[in-house]
Amino acid sequence: GDFCQLPPVPNKRDGKTVLARFAFEAETWETCVGPPVVLKKVFRQKDQGFVNMLNEMRFGEMSESTINIFRGLNRNVNYEDNVQPTELFPHREQVDGANRTRLSQLPGESQTYVAFDTTGTDLNGNKVNDVQRDRLLDRLVVPKILTLKVSIAYS
């Protein structure tokens, strides 16, 4: 993969943020993977000027000229089918904020559901205690409280 694309996402352990590291920062990287391979030829883009701009962005060293060209591409787009493009966010908090905004724009009443989590047993039949349960639940992507609306779009 391209380590310039997205940095690793930090994790939480016992309620504290654990800094994430790139795979190549592991002590065993050289032993397991070997030296890095740097690919230099771009196949998907033919415009070398555009390739140079993308490389500036990848390495976080954009020239004023490149910044101005990218800013010049900013425009309002009207989607005739009313289907909005997918948005990508690096953090769950940003995803949650975007979802709350979209939900508030939908007509209808909100219905909120609250998870009720209890302890049980693991795959070996051992009882899971509250601390283990909370640690497992902290790693889930699903929220403890979920608010939904019934909205029917007609086209």
TrEMBL record:
Transmembrane segments: none
SUPFAM superfamilies the UniProt entry points to: P-loop containing nucleoside triphosphate hydrolases (SSF52540)
InterPro entries in the cross-refs: P-loop_NTPase, PIF1_helicase
Protein name: DNA helicase
Domain of life: Eukaryota
